[in-house]
Design a protein that fits this description.
The complex is a heterodimer of chains A (72) and B (394).
Chain A lengths: L1 H16 L24 H12 L19
Chain B lengths: L1 H10 L3 H9 L16 E12 L21 E12 L3 E14 L18 E15 L3 E12 L2 E13 L5 E14 L9 E17 L2 E14 L14 E15 L4 E12 L4 E12 L4 E12 L34 E14 L2 E13 L15 E13 L1
Antiparallel strand pairs in B: 1-2, 1-16, 2-3, 3-4, 4-5, 5-6, 6-7, 7-8, 8-9, 9-10, 10-11, 11-12, 12-13, 13-14, 14-15, 15-16
């Protein structure tokens, strides 16, 4: 049940953040910078996720649809 | 343009300014709902090597064989292609993993590992394709992924949707994926085993200020089938694995150094009894008009799976478990440990071309577990990765 407490806390945090002063359309120049997007270097991210998933018990959380591997 | 027309009607005197701002390239929603402006072709080459120095004296094994066995090495060329049109985008990628070396068959004791020259060798080929349709304030994407190696085959399909608020400061996303794996280990301990997984994720991305973007994602994954590692001794795991993951990402831009801090926290919990915490941070620092340096750090901690057992000191039992438990494992990846990594990436841009080099060092230690109490009898593990990339926009 501990994970429910963590996830509830995360939800509450972001819900409270949604009340912050949001930028106007003409103020989004910085948000449009490549480094500010939630994406990034696709191939680098996949390599990192694949390596870490083969060395640690926890994986996932950053998207759906990747295939599995033996990785023994 | 429908969104711009809508804004013009609603916003009165601000309409023209708002519409002009929306028309500017790069003035986007919290998470892009517009098709990418440019296509991308990218090549990346990965070299990976891990190592584990033997310090632990196991029953009947003093660690002296460790240096004679090469641990895992991987060389992976990969390619990525993004082709956008006015309302669609197509993404295709492919990778070949050339893997060789030895892994322990129990704990970090390599005395039972493959001793053939170079250890085991394998080649994994994987590819995926994703098609996305973009609408005024949303997008829908369908993906297909396929991976094959000599003892493992995986097929995955995914469906993702995004929807943005009218001011485009908030984007909601939802994703559903199904994966079907077939396992045929070379030792034929099992034949034609299957594993199926369904994954559901939902998230929200919020522009918090002109310099802050945050994202919360919740993921639930339910899996049924063969989870054992067929190459490890005494490895028998439940045939069900349910995972719950919460991830919070936060990107903040600092105006003075013109740098961006990309940070994230992930909580993971599964029905194997594993809880894990991960924090990551990367500092993206443009140094000149064409050079960007990105140092990064990561910390990870997990407890052990409920069926993982510590090395038994009785040599007549080792490496087996005491008694006959229903489930058991000596896989160090299911033990309790902490891990840290540091990386440095340099990227050079010349017009539409860019090249990058990233070096990362990763270390796993039992005593680095959050709270300091990790699994006994596991040696420190380390890995080095080097990634070299080249990409062009068109």
């Amino acid at each position: 049940m501990i994970h429910r407490r963590y996830i509830s806390a995360l939800c509450a945090l972001v819900a409270s953040l949604a009340g912050c002063a949001s930028p106007q359309p003409w103020e989004k120049g910085v948000l449009a910078k490549e480094a500010m997007t939630m994406g990034g270097d696709t191939l680098e991210q996949r390599f990192n996720q694949h390596i870490l998933a083969s060395k640690e018990a926890a994986s996932g959380g950053s998207g759906v649809g990747g295939g599995g591997c033996g990785c023994n | 343009m429908a969104a711009i027309d809508s804004v013009k009607k609603r916003s009165g005197k601000w309409g023209a300014i708002t519409a002009a701002a929306l028309a500017l390239p790069g003035v986007m929603s919290a998470q892009a709902e517009e098709p990418p402006e440019k296509g991308v072709i990218a090549l990346k080459y990965l070299h990976y090597r891990d190592s584990q120095t033997n310090h632990t004296i196991y029953p009947g094994y003093d660690g002296s064989e460790g240096s004679s066995l090469n641990r895992i090495r991987v060389n992976s060329p990969s390619v990525y292609l993004l082709v956008p049109t006015s309302h669609w985008s197509l993404e295709v990628s492919g990778v070949v993993d050339q893997v060789s070396g030895a892994t322990p068959r129990y704990y970090s004791d390599v005395s039972g590992a493959t001793k053939s020259p170079g250890g085991m060798k394998d080649e994994r080929k994987a590819g995926d394709v994703k098609v996305t349709r973009y609408m005024d304030r949303g997008s829908v994407g369908v993906g297909l992924a396929y991976s094959t190696e000599h003892d493992y085959r995986s097929t995955a399909v995914s469906l993702e949707g995004r929807y943005a608020s009218l001011d485009k400061n908030t984007t909601w996303n939802i994703g559903l994926a199904g994966t079907s794996d077939t396992i045929n280990p070379v030792n034929q301990i099992v034949v034609g085993e299957r594993k199926r997984t369904v994954e559901l994720t939902a998230g929200v991305t919020q522009a918090l200020s002109t310099n802050d973007l945050a994202q919360l994602s919740l993921t639930y994954s339910g899996g049924r089938g063969y989870y054992d590692d067929p190459y490890k001794l005494f490895d028998h795991r439940p045939r069900t694995r349910n995972e719950a993951i919460g991830m919070l990402r936060w990107n903040h831009h600092f105006d003075a150094p013109d740098a961006t801090l990309r940070s994230s926290y992930r909580f993971y919990n599964d029905s194997f009894g594993i809880h894990a915490h991960t924090v990551e941070a990367a500092w993206v620092q443009p140094v000149t008009s064409f050079l960007t340096i990105t140092p990064s750090v990561r910390y990870y901690s997990q407890n052990s799976a409920s069926f993982y057992y510590d090395p038994v000191t009785d040599a007549s039992v080792y490496p087996g478990p005491l008694g006959t438990p229903a489930y058991s494992s000596t896989d160090q990846r299911l033990s309790a440990f902490g891990a840290a990594s540091v990386g440095l990436k340099g990227e050079i841009q010349f017009g539409r071309w860019s090249t990058d080099l990233k070096v990362e060092q990763y270390v796993q230690r039992s005593e680095w577990r959050l709270g300091g109490k990790g699994t006994p009898g596991i040696d420190p593990f380390s890995a080095t990765t080097v990634q070299l990339g080249l990409s062009a926009k068109f």
